[in-house]
Amino acid sequence: MDVLEIDNSFKEFKTIEEVELKQCEEWSVSEMTLKEIEYNTFFEQFMLRNVPCILKNVSFNWECSKKWILRNQINYEYLIESYGDLVVPVADCNKISYNSQCKCEMKMKDFIHYLRKSERTQLLYLKDWHLKNVRPTDNFYEVPKVFGLDWLNEYAQDNNEDDFRFVYIGPQNSWTPLHSDVYSSYSWSVNVFGRKEWTLFPPGEERKLKDSLGNLPLMYNEKSFPNIQHLKIIQESGDAIFVPSGWYHQVVNLQDTISINHNWINSCNIVFMWKSLHENLLTIENEIEHLKDTPEFHDQCQLILKSLFGIDLERFKKFIIHIAQKRLHQLEEKSLKSFDRFSLGKNQILFDLNKIHFVMNKLNLENYKIHNDLLSIIQKKLFK
Ligand SMILES: O=C(O)CCC(=O)C(=O)O
Ligand SMILES: [Fe+2]
User: Fold this and answer.
1) Class at the top of the CATH hierarchy for domain 2-264
2) CA-CA distance, 87 to 78, in Å (whole number)?
3) Single pTM value for the model
4) Which of 26, 27, 87, 354 sits most deeply, having the most CB atoms within 10 A of its CB?
């Protein structure tokens, strides 16, 4: 098992909120290979600071690079043979309804038949395909160690729930509209084949793109919006991109492209998740304030929260309580697995518990009660 561990120094938790809020003054994107960056450095330089980076040559040893690609081309035959009968989610980039791309489902083999045609009349994009969940024993890729601290997929795996691990296959010019990721999570994405152009906006910058009704454009266009801070990043074949929390982004496939990505949350961005959940909830409560004195008010707010944000308060609490209890166990039993092939070092566990403690305190302050027993057990472990 691979151990994720950080320097002792992170145990000095006093500046916890400062770290969260610190912003990078200069928007440039670092590039390095996995060999050049250790877990601890990635944790400090990119996850805690919440800034993007590119990691070079990540996927060359992955099984999918050998099997899905043949002589520098997508191996259509192999993909049809292995996955042809699976049903996959597909977006139609040319069909827009209610400010988003129309979605449908089709058999993988039909999508591949479409993709291999030299003349395509449509612009279809296979997105958010949970292939790893459907084929858990198919080890077509390996999670890079720097992306190993993944509470979201750890929780999903432990509880047999839908995961946040996806495969994307898109022809040249297919695109993903401007968005920020689910729950304010991070994402990482690796091009197994092809190239992407990413446009990323530092948090808050997207506000300048909103129209008078508060709607964002489907795609940002430099000419219509001069003077907006943004980063343009070309992600080459084999590269991983780290997309930080709350950074809006849009993507264009510059060639036919296959990528694998995860959305992930951990102790470095759990406070972002909490803050955006809370902000969403406050907005909803405000919007339906006229129902405030009805008995359904609370449930209505939670229903809307679930549909807009993807998760309600009860599930959020369940999520952090699960991780909290697991970390308390891990503190005693060093070998307990976390996510994928990873286990955690003591400093990492303590750091996780510290952030959980911070969020649980916030929940209690807002009267979204967390058991005091659990809080005081964590407190004892942290401050003994
Ligand atoms: O590759 C794409 O088209 C979009 C991926 C994305 O939005 C992400 O990884 O967060
Ligand atoms: Fe995204």
Assistant:
1) mainly beta
2) 16
3) 0.95
4) 354
